[in-house]
Design a protein that fits this description.
Helix content: 25-40%
Distance between the termini: 70 Å
Structural class: alpha+beta
Largest sheet: 4 strands, parallel
Radius of gyration: 35 Å
Number of strands: 37
């Protein structure tokens, strides 16, 4: 055994060994129970930093632990390799997305292997490979046949400079990040999935996700946003055939509606705008098209609007009320129109005060006591939004809000002006992207036949090898004649291919199932594989994906179930959302973010930019290449080894909490591994004769210190097991191993003290205990630091790999503490606590109590009448 711990020597050796033996390939035995462990696959941006590493190491610990528990484990990896970043890089650097992506995949794969991740690389996939995106197209066509895909017109970000559609992340404060020209909202044709068809099931099945974080479940529930209410039709004055549809959950307030508000993008705005208001309305609509929707609807944003010049009729009062457009109403929320009740809705109240619109109270608070007090408009400093009793509401006066909502809905149905309905915040999923680096949508536009799907047998529709990727003008694929021009699959006449590509969330919505059969050519995957492995046992990833990826992920699973491909309703049994790794970032007003190399004395309280001398702003931010504060795994592995990098990412905080990068803590994890190495170096040869010893250990004749260490070993096994299995508290599991190592000093002292003539029985039992500690410490360490664990396992003279051994078992009796704490009462009041031996008799407990100084103080000058001992809990002394 090398006298020094050299991770750079041992880690590549074991990585090669694992690979040569196919140690992490799944499907070792059909009869074995299986666990599918998955981390969200990465976009291959070129390099990982420690923020990425944390998620993959968390998943790896679980995969290794489940293997040692005897499960057949599937733990695959692949690449979310289509999408906007590669295309933007192509525009910026002139490198084809395919070339850049392939280079990046090689780089990230190498980094992952250097970390010792126990991945089944035989199942590797890349979404940019035609063998993968062919099945995106297959699903698209099958869903089109089921009515789950349709063509529509919707609002999109349109850059007035680049003359193209932009993704949300390319728009900063209403300006294109590339050309700095204004971005406006424009109606364009696109393709969408009918995710709303599954809205109720997506909502109801949240109740099945008992092992998902509550905050993720709550975010999805709110995003789906099921609202039961009433849809009402407000006729347009002087135009009996037209009406405005509104949705409200507060039909009880309809008598207080004094104006109607439309979204600036509402389809009826142009028709309803009178000529004298046209210029003001058009200017307001143009201004709103440049403002992000989140900013428009922020609770603190100023309420702004313009009157269209037209009036609607309140169908319950017959009153003419003005029709406005305003910033706080969105076209794709509800019906894009609201009845405004300023006395009972805070937004409406603020808008009415801003523009001097009428405020009418129609809901009074529930009466309390004998004296009833009615609200008056002069009393209002804000809207009264609670339920109450209807007031001045014709035949509904006196009803409670709840009763009135029912009666008003029934009246609307009788009169044919509306009725009870359900609305969702969730909208259908628009998937069209005017980009090159994505899955081509497999549809053909024919002047004779209309829109026609590409035949299944003709898939995949391949991306052309070259396309003009400029970021300006029409979609790149539209500029490639040999791609665009085709024949109609139905009539054979000349036609045009669809030139939009799919949203990359399509790729990540079903990738977990492609891992089951990555080489399958007849279907996306085999049903028998899905039945064997699904649902995913544990899924690890960031909470930022709560309402996009994770919702689409669930939707796609339900579609696959209805297609007969899977039997499960939900893709994942348990979700673990890890926190970020944050590090110090340095910001210069002149030069932007600076790396530590560009900072004069990074440890100073006022660090300065090396170029301009400005004092830098320093703060903790999520590790990111853009912020120049990422720590590369290579530098960590070079200095300390992969096992230290793994250990730090797990030990620094519980998985769900953020980790602050700390060089000293990293060094501390390295020192822990080095101390284990030294401990094994001292003792591994002493236990050569005990390799077959499996326990139990006979404690008779051992010192109290060695008995305590034996019990501590069993408690450590129990704690590490529980911390991994139940709560994923890897940090406390590692802390328990550190504590166990600290307690092993008693073994150093005992073994070093052996001399000739020592009791052979005591020597044998001590060495048996030493072997038990060494063996179990390696096995417990193996999921966290697998390289050093396998090296130590070999040096113990054990066969095979540490990671393929059974997980250690603990003796429940040995995990109990030798002493227990008991409260001591004097006349019923607690005056002291004592530690007593678990097996102590009542007489021994009484004797210990009477010697306790704190108790003696309360017994002075009094006679003991009675001593009551409640075993394991308390002692009560009754005195006179």
């Amino acid at each position: 055994m090398d006298p020094k711990y050299h991770p750079r020597l041992i880690e590549p050796k074991w990585q090669k060994c694992w690979n040569d033996h196919g140690l992490f390939d799944a499907d070792h035995g059909k009869a074995r129970e299986r666990h599918y462990v998955l981390e969200m696959f990465p976009y291959p941006s070129g390099n990982l930093h420690m923020g990425h590493v944390r998620a993959y190491v968390i998943g790896d610990v679980l995969a290794r632990y489940y293997r040692m528990q005897g499960f057949d484990v599937l733990h695959p990896m692949g690449w979310d390799s289509l999408g906007l970043p590669a295309e933007n890089a192509a525009i910026r650097d002139g490198i084809h997305p395919k070339q850049r992506t392939e280079q990046n995949i090689k780089s990230v794969r190498r980094q992952m292997k250097s970390l010792g991740l126990s991945l089944d690389w035989s199942r590797e996939i890349a979404t940019c490979d035609p063998s993968y995106y062919r099945w995106n197209q297959w699903f698209f066509i099958k869903m089109y046949e089921r009515g789950l895909v349709y063509r529509r017109t919707s609002l999109a970000n349109w850059c007035t400079g680049c003359l193209t559609v932009l993704a949300n992340e390319q728009v900063v404060d209403g300006i294109c990040e590339r050309c700095n020209k204004p971005v406006v909202q424009r109606q364009i044709p696109d393709w969408a999935f009918r995710i709303t068809r599954y809205a109720d099931e997506l909502l109801d099945d949240l109740g099945k996700l008992n092992l998902w974080p509550e905050r993720i479940v709550s975010m999805q529930r709110n995003w789906i946003g099921r609202s039961e209410g009433v849809e009402l039709r407000f006729p347009i004055k002087d135009n009996g055939s037209d009406h405005i549809e509104i949705f409200t959950t507060r039909a009880d307030t309809v008598y207080g509606a004094t104006y109607v508000v439309l979204a600036p993008e509402h389809a009826m705005v142009a028709k309803l705008t009178r000529s004298e208001q046209k210029s003001r309305v058009e200017a307001f609509v143009a201004e709103m098209s440049k403002i992000e929707r989140a900013r428009r609807t922020d609770a603190g944003a100023k309420k702004e609007g313009v009157w269209t010049g037209s009036y609607a009729i309140n169908p319950f009062t017959g009153e003419e009320i003005p029709i406005w457009i305003a910033n706080f109403v969105l076209a794709d929320y509800g019906t894009g129109a609201v009845m405004s009740v300023p006395a009972h809705d805070q937004r409406d109240y603020e808008f009415a005060k801003q523009y001097g619109l009428p405020i009418r109270i129609v809901i009074q608070p529930q009466p309390s006591g004998e004296v009833e007090k009615h609200l008056a408009c002069s009393d209002l400093s804000q809207a009264f939004t609670e339920d109450g009793v209807l007031y001045q509401s014709e035949k509904h006066t006196g009803l409670s809000s709840a009763q009135a909502r029912i009666q008003i809905a029934k009246q609307a149905e009788r009169q044919g002006i509306g009725g009870i309905t359900i609305r969702y915040h969730l909208r259908d999923w628009g998937i069209s992207r005017q980009r090159y680096w994505g899955t081509p949508i497999p549809m053909v536009h024919c002047e004779v036949c209309g829109i026609v799907p590409v035949p299944i047998e003709s898939l995949p529709v391949l991306l052309p090898e070259q396309a003009p990727i400029t970021g300006t003008g029409e979609a790149p694929l539209a500029k490639v004649p040999e791609f665009v021009n085709t024949d109609c699959p139905k009539c054979g006449k000349k036609a045009r291919r669809e030139t939009d590509t799919m949203d990359t969330f399509v790729d990540s919505s079903w990738y977990f199932a492609r891992y089951l059969d990555p080489g399958e050519e007849d279907l996306p995957f085999k049903r028998e594989s899905a039945d064997r492995w699904l649902p995913v046992k544990i899924y690890v990833g960031g909470p930022e994906h709560a309402v996009m990826h994770l919702l689409y992920f669930r939707f796609w699973t339900k579609v696959m179930r209805d297609m007969g491909l899977v039997s499960v309703d939900e893709p994942v049994e348990r979700l673990l959302t890890q926190g970020m790794v944050v590090g110090e970032s340095f910001w210069c007003e002149s030069h932007g973010y600076r790396s530590r190399d560009g900072v004069d004395d990074p440890e100073s309280s006022e660090p300065k930019c090396t170029e301009c001398g400005r004092t830098l702003r320093v703060r903790l931010e999520k590790m990111s290449k853009s912020k120049l504060n990422g720590v590369a795994p290579e530098s960590m592995c070079e200095q300390y080894g992969a096992d230290t990098a793994r250990l730090f990412s797990l030990f620094a905080a519980p998985p769900e909490k953020d980790v602050e990068w700390n060089d000293r803590a990293v060094a501390g994890c390295y020192n822990f591994l080095r101390r284990i190495w030294v401990f094994f170096l001292r003792h591994h040869q002493r236990v050569e004769g005990y390799r077959d010893f499996a326990g139990p250990l006979d404690e008779s004749g051992l010192s109290l210190e060695l008995i305590a260490l034996h019990r501590s070993l069993h408690r450590t096994i129990a704690k590490v097991t529980a911390d991994i299995e139940k709560e994923f508290q890897f940090n406390t599991a590692i802390a328990a191993l550190m504590e166990l190592l600290n307690g092993c000093k008693v073994l150093d002292d005992e073994v070093d003290g052996f001399a000739e003539g020592v009791d052979p029985d005591r020597k044998q039992k001590t060495e048996q205990l030493l072997f038990m500690v060494l063996k179990n410490m390696v096995l417990l360490l193996s999921p966290f630091a697998p390289h050093v664990a396998d090296e130590l396992w070999k040096n113990l003279g054990m066969s095979g790999f540490a990671g393929e051994q059974p997980w250690p078992k603990f003796d429940p009796q040995a995990t109990q503490e030798d002493t227990i704490q008991m409260a001591v009462q004097v006349n019923g009041k607690v005056r002291a606590t004592i530690d007593v031996q678990r097996e102590a008799s009542e007489d021994e407990i009484r004797a210990q109590v009477e010697k306790n100084e704190k108790v003696q103080k309360w017994l002075e000058g009094k006679s003991i009448r009675r001593v009551i001992v409640v075993p394991g809990r308390l002692v009560n002394i009754v005195v006179g």
